[in-house]
């Protein structure tokens, strides 16, 4: 059987910041660190202030003399606390993770991914899922408490599988969603359903999207994907290229088998943002899909 691994750690999986979970409920420690704390402002489009290709952090004290309601504590970096806050508008140049991802250093990527995912959760968790009452952020933004029952809820992360399907030889299956321009292809992905194992999800999603049966499902790695608050769980699986496609759920407009040579040529061209008139364009480097395809192409 063809064996391959991710070509490297996914760009959004670089974890170097101390999350300092023990400080989240330590009011005195957080107040003490506030004066020197850094602040990341994130708008509703997931954009942050930038200077060129670097994230611009402000000063937490610009919000007030002590930790402010609505701000979320991201951890400690180089001895300083780091917080994030949602803003309705930005001033000056901004960029999001899709544009910045491959250019960020590990700490910037780590902080930005956490900030975007956590603030996205708060935007949609203003009312308790248990009793419908308004909820308030606690634990420095890492939980919310119902104002009526006191029920505590924690940040939600939606698991999704992403699977590179190959023929155990020289071909890989790639597909295009209806909203994607022609020539833009990627591997298949889908959300995990309630009561479902990851391996079962792989088999179901591939069958639903392209009608193929897979075997030899194997885990490769994972990546946070804060769009809005998911984690991508990467797998490889084998399918028969002679089995006909059946697009059952309407999520795929086109699918085809590509050779290693074709994939290698596409990787050399760049990614979806490339202006070249190439027959195949692949995802950019911030997606775990890129590392999966690189790993397979070089196996």
Automatic annotation (TrEMBL):
Source taxon at top rank: Bacteria
Location of the Nudix hydrolase domain: 155-280
Reaction(s) catalysed (UniProt annotation): a 5'-end NAD(+)-phospho-ribonucleoside in mRNA + H2O = a 5'-end phospho-adenosine-phospho-ribonucleoside in mRNA + beta-nicotinamide D-ribonucleotide + 2 H(+)
Enzyme class: hydrolase
InterPro entries (alphabetical): NAD-cap_RNA_hydrolase_NudC (IPR050241), NADH_PPase-like_N (IPR015375), NudC-like_C (IPR049734), NUDIX_hydrolase-like_dom_sf (IPR015797), NUDIX_hydrolase_CS (IPR020084), NUDIX_hydrolase_dom (IPR000086)
Statement: the UniProt record of this protein carries the keyword rRNA-binding: no
A matching Pfam family: NUDIX
Enzyme Commission code(s) on record: 3.6.1.22
GO molecular function, one term: hydrolase activity
Keywords for this protein: Hydrolase, Magnesium, Metal-binding, NAD
Cofactors, names only: Zn(2+); Mg(2+)
Annotated family: Belongs to the Nudix hydrolase family. NudC subfamily.
Protein name, as recorded: NAD(+) diphosphatase
Species of the source: Rhodococcus zopfii
């Amino acid at each position: 059987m063809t064996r391959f691994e991710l070509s490297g750690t996914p760009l959004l999986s670089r974890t170097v910041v101390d999350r300092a979970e023990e400080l989240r409920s330590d009011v005195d420690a957080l107040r003490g660190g506030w004066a020197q704390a850094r602040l990341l402002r994130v708008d509703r489009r997931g954009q942050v202030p930038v200077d060129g290709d670097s994230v611009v952090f402000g000063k937490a004290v610009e919000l007030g003399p002590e930790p402010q309601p609505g701000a979320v504590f991201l951890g400690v970096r180089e001895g300083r606390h780091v917080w994030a806050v949602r803003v309705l508008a930005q001033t000056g140049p901004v960029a999001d993770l899709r544009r910045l991802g491959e250019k960020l250093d590990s700490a910037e990527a780590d902080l930005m991914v956490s900030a975007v995912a956590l603030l996205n959760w708060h935007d949609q968790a203003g009312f308790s899922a248990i009793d419908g009452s308004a909820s308030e952020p606690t634990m420095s933004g890492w939980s919310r408490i119902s104002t009526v029952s006191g029920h505590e809820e924690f940040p939600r992360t939606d698991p999704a599988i992403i699977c590179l399907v190959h023929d155990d030889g020289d071909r890989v299956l790639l597909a295009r969603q209806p909203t994607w321009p022609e020539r833009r292809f990627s591997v298949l992905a889908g959300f995990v359903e309630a009561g479902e194992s990851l391996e079962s999800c792989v088999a179901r999603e591939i069958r639903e999207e392209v009608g193929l049966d897979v075997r030899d499902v194997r885990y490769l790695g994972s990546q946070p994907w804060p769009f809005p608050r998911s984690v991508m769980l990467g797998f490889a699986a084998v399918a028969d290229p002679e089995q006909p496609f059946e697009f059952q759920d309407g999520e795929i407009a086109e699918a085809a088998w590509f050779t290693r040579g074709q994939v290698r040529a596409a990787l050399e061209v760049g990614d979806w943002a490339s202006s070249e008139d190439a027959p195949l364009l692949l995802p950019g480097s911030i997606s775990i899909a890129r590392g999966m395809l690189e790993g397979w192409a070089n196996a």
